[in-house]
Amino acid sequence: MNWDDLRVFLAVARAEGLSGAAKTLRLDPATAGRRIARLERSLGAVLFAKSPQGYALTEAGQRLLPRAEAAEAALAEGRAETAGAGGERLSGTLRIGAPDGCANYLLPQVCAQIGAAHPDLDIQILALPRVVNLSRREADLAITVSPPATQRLRAEKLSDYHLSLAASRDWLAAHGAPDGPEALKGARMIGYIPDMIFDAELDYLAGFGVTRVPLASNAVSVQLNLARAGAGLAIVHDFALPAAPDLVRVLPDRVRLTRAFWLVSHAGPRDARLDRFATLLRDGMRAEIARLEASVA
């Protein structure tokens, strides 16, 4: 199995189509399509169901996805270990803006690893419960939960991530688990302050018909700590659960959401230093999400 073909497979799966994947890989869509066809022939299986809406993974594609992500993570770890050993080290200051869940539970590990390989680089993490404004130069790069609508910015899909319903063991012992997703409408829920949800992708509870949030915060870390304190049920990032071992996933087969992180940069002339840092950040983020989510699967 050819890693270059697997790399194309991952890009198509993440972009849900050839055009987005080709843009990420800097290939033309026809080349990306030929790579997918070659991989399918080598495996003797159809990996994508193609439709006017895009490319959706088949059962065979779903089985291949975690193995391809594991190979990607292993390569990313190898790159991180050797970064700076044979090439020029990064230096200066770079600032990343990110929503606070990503900033709290993913970026510290990723940036620590990059910083160890590039000791002359100063990395600043701007954690905000809103979209970081690159146009006002608040940061050099931003991580968002949906791609920007403006053409003045460049966006690359970083990785899917997952969220689960969770509560503390003490809360579950006292109140019991809900019978199903429909029971969340009457449950004591923890979530975002409704009028401070800055992206529709974060309106997790609306899909379950929840209209009242008795305990709310604009910060993911506060929501997590409310759940740890036994305040109720919360929708929690799977990658944050290893930091809260006292929380238990509830209805894991019936309540599991999928969202995505996007890496956003200015659409102006390419900056080689920023591009190199973005590559390290992308590889590190994908590896860290895969590692943390695997520990709670």
TrEMBL record:
Gene Ontology biological process terms, A to Z: DNA-templated transcription
GO MF annotation, one: sequence-specific DNA binding
Family (UniProt): Belongs to the LysR transcriptional regulatory family.
Keyword annotations of the record: DNA-binding, Transcription, Transcription regulation
SUPFAM superfamilies per record: Periplasmic binding protein-like II (SSF53850), Winged helix' DNA-binding domain (SSF46785)
InterPro entries: LysR-type_TF_proteobact-type, LysR_HTH_N, LysR_subst-bd, WH-like_DNA-bd_sf, WH_DNA-bd_sf
Residue span, HTH lysR-type domain: 1-58
Source organism: Roseicyclus persicicus
PROSITE patterns linked to this entry: HTH_LYSR
Record protein name field: LysR family transcriptional regulator
